[in-house]
Amino acid sequence: MRQPAHGRAGGKVILLGEHAVVYGRPALAAAVPLAVDARLEPGAGPRLVSDHADDPRGAELVAAAARATGLDPTRVVVHVRSDIPPGRGLGSSAALSVAVLRASAAAAGRTLSPAETLACGRDLERIFHGTPSGVDPAVAALGGCVRFVRGEPPEVALVRPGARLRLVVAWGDRPRSTGAAVGGLRARWEAARARYERLFDDVAAVVADGIAALERGDAAALGAAFDRNQALLETLGVSSPEVETLARHARVAGARGAKLTGGGAGGAVIAIADDADAVAAALQARAVDTLVVGIGDDVRIDGRMEA
Ligand code: PMV
Predict the structure, then answer these.
(1) Mean pLDDT, rounded, for 207-228
(2) Strand, coil or helix: 112
(3) Ligand 1 centroid from CA 307, angstroms
(4) Which of 7, 159, 215, 253 has the fewest CB atoms within 10 Å, counting from its CB?
(5) Does 135 sit in the ligand 1 pocket, CB within 6 Å?
């Protein structure tokens, strides 16, 4: 086993299209400058030692990543440190999966291609929630701002903003479960497929408008797309009063649009604003944590692929 063996991967925000992306519609997602670092050591394993609360699925992740890279899982211990708050829709489980995978590959003396990282990262993310689209590990593996469509292989294209647009990301102190939100929507879709397929088509139209707005550098049109997407997420039943209140406060503080990001049912909110610092300050006054990021900024994490 090669030492030292490190791996790193980043979090993300879904700008537009979460949930509908599970049903084959496109999503737009961007890397954020929050990351997970993993360090692999020989020891009695498989074992994951985390700076966050221990998760029983950690050992399963370490074992699966070890097997995928040709290591003996019983001899692997991985220590992780994460800046990504878990359970807020910021891609913490995908970043954890990709960071552990990269550390395992480094220990095995292997270099994974972006396509291998993406495919294997998605398999590992399944340990945390059942039917992921793969958008989170795609951004964790590749970085940047991407249009993503699930598939074998997925369609991943870099989107270049026409101007520097600033995004406020805000999250409270209550984690929630993406798996539960995805499962709840699946049950509703099974009971009324035609209705939900139409809603997913409406989301796809918003995503197309939002991508065009981003490429033009049009903050007003991108903000309008955020608001339309939020209304559809509410109709899909994956929003919550907590995120709706935060989105409303962001708009009152001057945001051009705001929505939940990721699995929903709580979690993080994103807002597009000309004066992003003012919106972030207004939200911080409501006891939430915030991060201001330029959409598509070169968030260099590790192993970035230029598309
Ligand atoms: O909550 P997160 O960061 O895992 O994002 C989930 C995004 C969904 O579209 C709801 C699920 C998926 O697998 O794409």
Answers:
(1) 98
(2) coil
(3) 23
(4) 215
(5) yes
Task: Please tell me the distance between residue 20's alpha carbon and the centre of ligand 1 in angstroms.
Answer: 10
Compute how many other C-beta atoms are within 10 angstroms of the C-beta atom of residue 190: 9
* Parallel, antiparallel or unpaired: strands 145-149 and 76-82: unpaired
- Three-state secondary structure string covering 228-285: HHHHHHHHHCCCCHHHHHHHHHHHHCCCCEEEECCCCCCCCEEEECCCHHHHHHHHHC
C-alpha pair distances (Å), 183 with each of 77, 131, 159, 259, 281:
32, 9, 30, 21, 35
Residue 77, burial from CB neighbour count under 10 angstroms (0-12, 13-18, 19+): middle
Task: Kindly tell me if the per-residue pLDDT of 307 is higher than 50.
Answer: no
Interatomic CA distance for residues 48 and 61, integer angstroms: 8
pLDDT at 303: 42
Asked if residue 97 has its Cβ within 6 Å of ligand 1, the reply is no
Domain boundary among 121, 136, 158: 158
Q: Whose CA is nearest to atom 2 of ligand 1?
A: 89
Q: What is the DSSP code (8-state) at residue 76?
A: E
Q: Crossing angle of helices 241-252/219-236, nearest 10°?
A: 160
Do residues 90 and 37 share a domain? Answer: yes
Same domain, 117 and 200: no
Q: What is the CATH number of the domain that holds 198?
A: 3.30.70.890
SS3 222: helix
Residue 301 C-beta-side C-alpha neighbours within 13 Å = 33
Q: The CATH number of the domain where 136 resides is what? A: 3.30.230.10
pLDDT per residue over 44-68, tens digit each?
989 999 987 778 899 999 999 999 9
Same domain? 150 vs 172: no
- How far is 72 from 66, CA to CA, in rounded Å? 6
